[in-house]
Structures are given as C-alpha cells and as structure tokens.
Amino acid sequence: MDETTAHATLEDVAAFAGVSTATVSRCINSPDRVAPATREKITNAIRALNYSPNFGAKALASRRTGIIGAVIPTLENAVFAHGIDAFERALPQGKYSLLVASCGYDLNREKQQIESLVARGADGLLLVGFDRDPSLYAWLAHRRVPFVLAWASGDSHHFAGFDNKAGMAAMIRLVLDLGHRKIAMISGLTDGNDRARARLEGVRQSLADRGLGLCGVAEVPYGLDGGGQAFTELMVDRSITAIVCGNDVLAAGALRAAHHMGLVVPRDITITGFDDIDIASITLPELTTVRVPHARMGQEAALMLQRLIEGQESESVLLPTEIVERGTHAPPGGR
Amino acid sequence: MDETTAHATLEDVAAFAGVSTATVSRCINSPDRVAPATREKITNAIRALNYSPNFGAKALASRRTGIIGAVIPTLENAVFAHGIDAFERALPQGKYSLLVASCGYDLNREKQQIESLVARGADGLLLVGFDRDPSLYAWLAHRRVPFVLAWASGDSHHFAGFDNKAGMAAMIRLVLDLGHRKIAMISGLTDGNDRARARLEGVRQSLADRGLGLCGVAEVPYGLDGGGQAFTELMVDRSITAIVCGNDVLAAGALRAAHHMGLVVPRDITITGFDDIDIASITLPELTTVRVPHARMGQEAALMLQRLIEGQESESVLLPTEIVERGTHAPPGGR
DNA sequence: TTGTACGCGTTATCAT
DNA sequence: ATGATAACGCGTACAA
C-alpha cells in the first residue's frame, strides 16, 4: 500500500488534482472561494492520497492552533471534572481542542502549567479563581493570550463564575434562622485558594453582622477523611449545634464521622455542604447544600473564551447559587 | 516596553547574543553541546528579549508536538476523571501536555475525536477499551500514531488495564458463596461499551458455570437515577435476593431506591457495585464492590505511552482487581 | 477563479 | 564548538 512513511502534502494533492497549492489550501479553508468543478477534483485527490494537513505547518503559517488550555487544581474534585467536561463539550467539535493541566492547588505549579500551555500554542486559557501574581496577568496580557476565570467572581478580568462568599452568606442565614448560634466551620485549605477563602469569609462576615463569631474552624485538605477528622476534633466542644462545610466532600466526611460517633443528623447536629455534587444526594440523610451550576458555568466559559479568541468582546457571567434544603439541617436542641 | 506585538524569534536572540541561530537552537535543546560561555550569553539574550519558542515552527521542524491525546466517554464519570488526572500527572511536566476529548460513549464520535486529536498533532493517544472499528486501528497504524488502551484488557494492542469479566466473576463467587441463587443485574449500557459488556458477561458466565441464570437484567444509562429506576423495576420480583450492579453509581442509585422502598440493606437485599470510587464509602451501609486501581492504571498508561512515543517497546500492564467487602452484602433470607 | 512566490520560526545536516 | 543553509508544509498577498 504505502511504500514510505511520508504523508501526502498540499503539494502532492495539488499535483494530483492538477491545480496549484494555493487552490488546494483555499479549497480546504474556504471552499466557497473555489469553483465547484475544481473543488470536486481536489476533494477526490485528498481522498485518493489520504491527505491530512500538517499541524505544525498550519500553526506556523496561520499563527493559530485551535488549542485551548485549562489549568485546574485537580480532576479528582468532581466540581472541576464536571465543569471541564461541560467546557470541552461546548467547544465546537473540530474547531477547538482542550489541553488540560492540573496544578494540585499549587500557585507556583499553576504558573508553570500556564507557561507550558502557552508554549504549546494555546490560543486561550481557562483558569480557576482570581488569586495569582499580578506579573502573571501582565505576562498573559503581553503575550496577548485571552483567558477566562471560573469558579469565582470579581470586578476585574473576564470571568464566568459565581459568588462564593454570597453563597455561604445565604447558607449562614438559613442556619441562623433555624436558631443556631454555636456554629463551627470545616474549611478547605485557604492558602492560594481564593474560593475557599471567600467561603470562609462569607461565614465569618455573616456571623459578624449578627454580632456572632465562629465557635471553631478547621482548615483541612480536600477529602472525605479530612472532613471526618475535622468533625471529630471540632465536636470536642459539644455545645456546637451546626457545622458548615466548605464543600460537599468535606460535609460527607463529617456526616460519616458523625454517624460513627453515634450522632444522629440533623437531630444532634446540623451539617451543610457547598457545591451540590452527586454525593450530596447519596448521603443519608441527603445533604443540605449550596447548589452551584458547574456545568452551566463551564459552558458559558467556553462561549466567552471563544469570543475573546476571535477578537470579540464578551461580558463576564455571574451565575446564581441556590440553597438546597435537604435532610441535614434542623433547629438546634435535639428532639 | 514593547513597541510591537511581534515576539522575539530565534534569530533575534542569535543577533542579540552574537551567535548563529543554530547555536541558539542547540543551546535550548541540548545545552551540553554548547560552550558554557556562549550558553551564558544566549541565556541572557533569551531573558532580555523575553523569548519563547514558536510552537508551530518547532512542531513543523521537529515533527513532534509533545502533545498526547486522550479520548474518554466523559469526565462526569469519576472513574475517568481520576484515571485521566493520574495520567496527566504522570506526564513529565513541560515535556508532554494532555489534550482531552470526550465522546459520550459514542463510537462514531470517538472516531471523530481521535481524528481531531491526530490532526492537532498528537504524538500518541490514550483510548478507552478495545471495541472499535478495525479500520480505525488500521488508520492509526498507517499514521504511525502509538496508542495505549485502558480500562480493559485484551490479547492485542498495548493496554494498561484490568479484566472486567474476571472482576465480576469474583464478585459473583462471593454472592454465590453467601448462598444467593436469585440474582439480578443492573448493567450499564452495553452498546459500544465493551467494559459494560465484559462485566455483564462475567456475571452471566459465572452463573452459567454453576448451572444458574440471571433472574433479571436491566440495562440503564450511567447515573443515580438509572440505578434507582432499574432497581424498582427489577424488585417487582420479590424472590430476588441479590442485585449486582455494573458500577458504583448504579449501585448507589439502587441503594437509595431500596431505602425509599423501605428495604433494609443488606438484610432484605444484597447490592454490590464495581469500581470502588469515593461514593462507595459514603453510602449507608457502605458499598461492597470491586476495587479497580484507576489512578495506578492512569499512571502506568502514561509511562507506557511515553515509551511507545519514544520508539521503545513496552509490555502491556494487567492490573489486579480486588473484592472489597463492606456493608451491602449478606446471606439471603432476611433476618 | 486560479497561480506564483514568499514568509512563518525551527531543526538538522554539513562544513569549518 | 559553531556557523551556513536547506528543508519542513501551509497561508496568503499579489498578480494574472
């Protein structure tokens, strides 16, 4: 069949079809600019030679790759997995592809990954949160790489996200309205994580507005176990009647720990989550949490980034969060 | 600062450092082949001009992109999210980047995505399962694109996976040993999904080996609700004492449905899962399931693919699965 | 509508 | 150790 490993080039196709390379190129990139008859010949030639364009050459000549990069903390967190999934699906098939890199919640590593993706020709970037060195933003601007920030909101840059602080504030309102006054929080690690910080801040401030304070805060790494251990430690203070968690995984871990401690939720203790991922409706009782439209967000981010890459302007999108009252909250005071 | 939008090129750096472009190129790609003194000058020039190589040009000239492609059904399935996460992290930072595409369990779409990734210059591919048109394999071979198959095992191609059928067979053995004889299965959609088919086949054959048959099979789409509905339908036959599920999500859905039906697990019914993802230890009772080393698999796949891309041979890796006995299994017969 | 010819930024071969 | 210089495959003015 094929005598050599070499692939057909534009020139081969042109020769085969008896036209110039320019015409072949046109036929591929803007078919309407070439006569139907020649288009026919070229199409046949392409098929006959099993031609497919060389990526490097195309990128070099056109100065575009059609590659969009995304740097996220980790795909192990369902929140990012879902968002990225939706983001990728919202990208026009064939026009753009998604290059993903994870940084494990490490800002330095994030910077490296961003540089790596840009070096690999990313036409645009999807990033998580706002918290990064100004010089990085300057570099991005200098390199003229458009980007969209997600999973948070702010008053600068382009973003498709939501208000972490407000979401938590709403949850605190619910807990307070229930009558709770002795409230503690299990937060994700806040170092280099503005989403976690905003959620913690949302709790602190809402409480302060009512003249209250947190009865305890545990800052733990993402994971079921982190949530469980934090719960056990926090509950040394048995006067606590409600524990709000920075995310659903932490909450699920806390719930499991509560169960192991022989506590009945929500009779003995109220536990709340944040994100409303799948596990929130698998726990028993199901988790009261803050719903975040992760998929919708990924989709909006994809749309925005495309516009930016194609030189159009694009407004930021602030998505609403919503309290989902399920089974892990109740007034304090046991039965 | 910068008067124009143009970026520094190799030539600019060469001029600035007073050497030739060839030397600069060498300095970047094999620093040890250039004298320390000139290396110094070049390094300074690079920094001074804020130079970074043009991806397209590099790819064109070197015939390599450093991009690895992966096509998976969806990142919404934690199994793939974790595997891909591990895969990506096992890739040498800076040397390779990961291009991900999802196909939603659709073989046609998978083919398109594969072609798209190859068109984008992927040096190698990570694919899920073995089940695809022979012509696609032929095309991949012709294009000389190395690939590794995961989440399954077989006797052809390079793979880093596990034996779905054997995993299920082991689970059936456990259920049978417990004394169950009226067994039903909730399977994922088997169309175009050899992993789901292998799991179903594992159940069927193990049962047949003991002269038994399935008391019911429901084939449902991935998701909590699918598992729940299937459970409800299957349990119309109250003689059933055990339901094995094709994956943990289906099992979690079944468990929830059982709870809503007022059934006590495992007293009234045994329910088992497959994969051992996080939710398996969040349900109440925790799920008895088949553990699959998804992260380890992703890691092995990354190592294999790198070797293949770099022209070395590489043995396939068959990872072991393991039964995890937790709380959803018990002998039949209620209390 | 189609063809000519040059430029894109690197890599790599071959001298020196 | 370093320098010329020829590919690499495609896009795109510009001309015809």
From TrEMBL, chains A, B:
InterPro entries: HTH_LacI, LacI/GalR-like_sensor, Lambda_DNA-bd_dom_sf, Peripla_BP_I
Presence of the UniProt keyword Mitochondrion in the record: no
Membrane-crossing segments per the record: none
Presence of keyword Oxidoreductase: no
Pfam families, sorted: LacI, Peripla_BP_3
Organism (species): Paracoccus laeviglucosivorans
Protein's UniProt name: Transcriptional regulator, LacI family
Residue stretches making up the HTH lacI-type domain: 8-62
PROSITE patterns (UniProt xref): HTH_LACI_2
Highest rank taxon of the organism: Bacteria
SUPFAM superfamilies: lambda repressor-like DNA-binding domains, Periplasmic binding protein-like I
MF GO annotations: DNA-binding transcription factor activity; transcription cis-regulatory region binding
Keywords, in A-Z order: DNA-binding, Transcription, Transcription regulation
